[in-house]
Amino acid sequence: MNIFFKKLSLGFLFMTMALPAFAQDTPTPSYNDPNKVYMGLGFGLDYGGLGAKIEYLPVKNIGLFAGLGYNLAEAGWNIGASYKIKTSERLSINPTAFYGYNGVLKVDGASEFDMVSYGVTFGVNFDIYVGKKGNKITAGLNVPIRSQKFNDNYDAVKNNPLIKMDNEILPIAIGVGYNWRLN
Question: For the chain, does the N or the C end have fewer beta carbons within 10 angstroms?
Answer without folding.
Answer: N
